[in-house]
């Protein structure tokens, strides 16, 4: 079974997400979407090859229980199979799985306390 097949997103906390987003827009050319983040397309690649970038408020608990100010989202082909394998290997896997029109999301903590988000894009 393949495990991670790409990076789905890079997320980090900011003291002032709107101002920092504007800095990335103005100085690095990020094209910000209505939801406040940016989506990078790998030279016209398919929808599941896009990478999201987004800022979260400094007091966001979305990365909890990690205390780190960032979280990486990795694309996977089969979320449920990977989560089962990680559990069998003794990893700290969150019991919660989110499934929506955006795909399936699950989480695991790495040995240094970083929350890792795993994302299976929706099938098109």
Concise structural overview:
The chain has 124 residues and is an alpha+beta fold.
Notes on the protein architecture:
- The chain has 124 residues and is of the alpha+beta class.
- The chain has a single domain (4-120), classed as 2,3-Dihydroxybiphenyl 1,2-Dioxygenase, domain 1, CATH 3.10.180.10.
- Helices cover 18% and strands 37% of the residues.
- The protein has helices at 17-28, 79-88; strands spanning 4-14, 38-40, 51-57, 70-76, 92-93, 98-100, 103-109, 115-120.
- Strands 1, 2, 3, 4, 5, 6, 7 and 8 form an eight-stranded mixed sheet that branches.
- A hairpin with a 5-residue loop joins strand 7 and strand 8 (115-120).
- The chain is globular, with a radius of gyration of 15 Å.
- The two termini are 21 Å apart.
Topology record:
Blueprint (H helix, E strand, L loop, with lengths): L3 E11 L2 H12 L9 E3 L10 E7 L12 E7 L2 H10 L3 E2 L4 E3 L2 E7 L5 E6 L4
Parallel strand pairs: 1-3, 4-8
Antiparallel strand pairs: 1-4, 2-3, 5-7, 6-7, 7-8
Task: Give the helices and strands as they follow along the chain.
Answer: EHEEEHEEEE
Stated plainly, the CATH topology is called 2,3-Dihydroxybiphenyl 1,2-Dioxygenase, domain 1
In the CATH hierarchy, what is the class? Alpha Beta
Helix content: 10-25%
Q: So, the CATH homologous superfamily?
A: 2,3-Dihydroxybiphenyl 1,2-Dioxygenase, domain 1
Give the beta-strand count.
8
What is the second-level CATH architecture?
Answer: Roll
Number of DSSP helices?
2
> How is the quaternary structure best described?
single chain
- Biggest pleated sheet: 8 strands, mixed
- Beta content comes to 35-45%
Shape field:
globular
Our measurement of the CA-to-CA distance between the termini, rounded to an integer number of angstroms, reads: 21 Å
Mean pLDDT: 91
